[in-house]
Amino acid sequence: MSEPASISSGIAERYATAIFEILQENNDLNGLESSVDSLAEAMNASEDLRELINSPVVSRDDQDAAITAIAAKMDLVESMRNALSLMAQKRRLFILPQLIIQLREMIAEHKGEVTADVISAKAMTKGQTDKLAAALKARVGKDVKINAAVDENIIGGLIVKVGSKMIDTSIRSKLNSLQNAMKEVG
Length: 186
Description:
8 helices; Glutaredoxin; four-stranded mixed β-sheet; 2 domains; alpha+beta; Peroxidase, domain 1
């Protein structure tokens, strides 16, 4: 891991631990989970939000006002709103993607579940997601929460990552393997 990424990850882990522990003491981990999911969804959907958290041009006060308004509008739990405000004041909003990952991992560990990152060529239906979660649960032995993403470049199939294990059944991967095999023959 590169040094800047390691530093960002360390900062995110400290904020995530503080937020998690506060909300665990207040018995509001469900509120935290919904806040994290809402924030992740907003980050994925809004280019403006991604620019806001990464922009060195936006002042601390403007970042704080903007993220506070966004958090209030999204009805995030109070501890999360306060943490986001503090992060803006300290110029730490750039770690928000790592913070979301850290909090999801902490919540999953607390609930005794694992998260599977699934990339598909088309959006999966609820039935497909449930079926995949059941198959992964049988394999892993824990409840599995699916974190789905779409990448049309894989052409078809799935790429599933659970912990350190990755299963790549994408057509793109199979075509690359075939291409490599053909190069070795010729």
